[in-house]
Amino acid sequence: MRIREGLKDISTRYSRLDPTPGASGEHGTRGAPGFGSRAPASEHIIAMTDRRSSPVGRVWVAGDGRVHRESERPPLSVWAVLDTLCWTVAEEQGVDGPAPDASVYQLTRFLDVQLDWLTRRSMVVEVWRDLRGLLAQLRPATGDQRAKIGTCPNTLDEGEHSRECAAPLYAPIKGDTISCGQCQRAWPRPAWEQLGRMINAA
Predict the structure, then answer these.
(1) pTM score, two decimals?
(2) pLDDT of residue 97
(3) How far apart are CA 128 and CA 130, in angstroms?
(4) CB atoms within 10 A of CB 78
């Protein structure tokens, strides 16, 4: 079952997260020179492991009068996403939720135990979407060296506004379909040429 495998993969990869600079291939590269203040560890990994991390990027004016912006797509807190999913499932099913101090491993186990019930509900689609988003974020941070081919050009409709997804796209390890881990848009091999044109145009 793909969800069960995904939960196990999330738990394993989370335990391998290392905020030491240079510990992961994607975030260990040297940035542009300058005198900006930087944390002595990977801020990306720290955000993934901090329960307080918010999926909303903030904008503020600092004491120096300059406008500062967080990423429009900040890293998700793995614990927070799993905890929210666990409590959604618990409330829908009418069972006790996980303990407030539950670990990521315990949260994935909670969801695994509820899979028989969950897979018979339509909400399983949303749960799998959120889990895939976590996997897409964890894989490059834990040594998954898939070749990055660009960013997702899929247009997302957000009511009055639309925007490009812009999540990283990676070459598939198996099969012949390129899939976005964030918006779930998929391009089978016959559409690769069209995808290439869209990426280049962006």
Answers:
(1) 0.58
(2) 93
(3) 5
(4) 25
